[in-house]
Amino acid sequence: MARIGIIGFGYVGAGLHKTITSGECAGLEVAFAWNRSKDKLAGIDPRLVLERLDDFAATAPDLIVEAAHPQVSVTHGAAFLERCDYMPLSVTALADDSVHERLVSAAERTHHHLILPQGALVGTDALLAWRHMWRDVTITFRKHPLNIDLAAVKRRPQDITTETVIFDGSVREIAPLFPRNVNTMVTCALATVGLDKCRGRMIADPALECAVAEIEAWGKDGSYLTTVKRQPMVGVSGTEMFASTLRSVLKATGTGPTVDFL
Question: Is the pLDDT of residue 159 over 60?
Fold first, then answer.
């Protein structure tokens, strides 16, 4: 059995707990569940509730999935990797080179794995396979203003009445401004041309009833790749986020379907 530690008990974390404890995923069991607000954990087996993240090792996890906040990786990521594999969903934490280097170093030293989930990034395998040949990559998010955390740019969703470009620049620059919205942008940048060369665009459009993610990649040899994905939203996440995360967990633990596509 692969033991899974779950950090954060929102849409994704609670979904993982329910799916694993219901027995839907043979070969997986919950090692612990932690959430900053303990009231969200009411009703689950108290033996699985972790009071302090510092005490995670006592639960003997094989993989820890972070679905809470980028600060978890900053504070605890390296310690997790000393003991087990680690999958941060808040990939924006890795836009800070010092955090990225600290986690990679811990993984290399202990032979554990830092696993970046595909999330909403369509075409991850194609982007990775050709990463040495990409010249320019742009990833654009189009969302309703209510589905964008605009606090850092001091704008109110209700004030945006027409399609508005909120940001256009490097992924490294956009990551700290929208840490809950652009995890997929950071994943795309790390998988291709890097945080400084990958261009990230955030567009707020009150006419939208879904979120749109567009990727364009130009190769040094003249090749070109483009994808467009439209999906409903749950808060700041797409509705497919849970299913995508679960698939990443199954692949990471080797407990996925007998026939798979890799």
Answer: yes
Nearest to 198 by CA among 142, 141, 137: 137
Distances (CA, A) of 261 to 15, 148, 251: 24, 33, 10
Give how many domains the chain has, as a whole number.
Answer: 2
User: Do 102 and 48 share a domain, yes or no?
Assistant: yes
Give yes or no for residue 238 having a pLDDT over 80.
no
**27 in the Ramachandran plot: left (φ > 0), alpha (ψ -120 to 50) or beta?**
left
Whether 163 and 205 have beta carbons less than 8 Å apart is answered as yes
Q: Can you give the residue range of the structural domain that contains 169?
A: 124-237
- Check whether residue 33 and residue 138 sit in a common domain: no
Read off the tokens for 105: 């170093």
The C-alpha atoms of residue 111 and residue 128 are separated, in whole angstroms, by 22
Query: In sequence order, what are the residues at sequence separation of 6 or more whose Cβ sits closer than 8 angstroms to the Cβ of residue 139?
Result: 171, 184, 185, 188, 189, 198, 199, 200, 201, 213, 214, 215, 216
Q: What is the CA radius of gyration of the chain?
A: 18
* 229 and 248 assigned to the same domain: no
48 plus 109 within the same structural domain = yes
* Per-residue pLDDT tens digits for 186-221: 999 999 999 999 999 999 999 998 889 999 999 999
Whole-structure pTM value: 0.91
Q: Contact, 253 vs 29, CB < 8 A?
A: no
Which candidate, 115, 131, 50, places its Cα nearest to that of 253? 115
Of residues 243 and 115, the one with the higher pLDDT is: 115
Cβ–Cβ under 8 Å, residues 133 and 223: yes
Per the CB < 8 A criterion, the answer to whether 187 and 119 are in contact is yes
pLDDT tens digit string along 76-91? 999 999 999 999 999 9
